[in-house]
Fold this protein.
Amino acid sequence: MKVIQLLPALNAGGVERGTLDMARALVQAGHESIVVSNGGRLVEQLEMEGSRHIALPVHKKSLASLLQVRPLRRLICDLRPDVLHVRSRVPAWLTYLAWRKLNPTTRPRLVSTAHGLYSINRYSAIMARSEQVIAISDCVRDYLISNYAADLKAEPEVIYRGVDTEEFSAQIPAPTDWLENALGEFPELRDRRWLVLPGRLSRWKGQEDFIAMIAALVTQQKDIHGVIIGGAEKNKQHYAQELRALATKHGVADRITFTGHRSDMREWYRQATLVYNLSRKPEPFGRTVIEALAMETPVIGYDIGGPAESLRACFPQGLVENGNHSQLREKTIELLKATASPKLSQEFTLREQAHRTLALYERLIKQRSETAT
């Protein structure tokens, strides 16, 4: 197969990571992988792993982007891919407008992945108008069916995002000096049990609930320490200051560490006693949940959205009613006493994600061949 994936840019984020993961899987399976984007720092990695990158300005939410429709149509005609896979709204519109004027019997199959719970409008509807939509969770599938039923050509197929178990696995030995280096940087963590909340600093991500929970527990659980991992966007630096002030107000400024963004998450998951996902509104998926579970670390999360699906499948005893602070404290005490060692379900592995996506491509190509004959 020859597959072209299209997205705005290749910098950082879940969509970008998913694109690179799929590109790598295509190459490893002997297929031809091409990615079209405006470029970015991940292009080098993409090309090193065997894919081809073609730079086109398919990223701007502007009417001027419509000038890319003809060049994109020419590119599709020249490359003659079997599948076009769009992962974001602007590239999806440009690709759809280029694709729809091609010969229906010979043009590539058009696939989209709905990575989020998009705003409900005509602009977002394009993610539902491909020949086959992939939803990254039941939560996203149900949202699409509820809000974009008129645009869907077929029921969205749920293919969970998968964690790379060659990167996140409790069986991978820890770097010999990691713990001592971490304790050197954050000496307050020594001889404490770490309760870890990963995620960017945002009002709906649950950092305030986490701080309140630590404050309610420290008098009973004298060896616990809260660790908030994640940075704030440039326009939200004030929120980071608010959270520190809140910790001070609760009297736990010395019991909560703000690490900022970290690139060594595997080891933080490994060393954590418990990991949390406390998003107050539905997230489409929640990668931190499956990464922590892959490290066999118990996870506690609110029973809402995509993260709850992962917990229901892999560690249901970690579920807590959304926003129930007393239940959150009780669940934490319960799991601090337990010796739970969760196992990641196969359906949340990168290998399974790639296998199911390749099977979807092959099925669509076969359907076209059968229609043509």
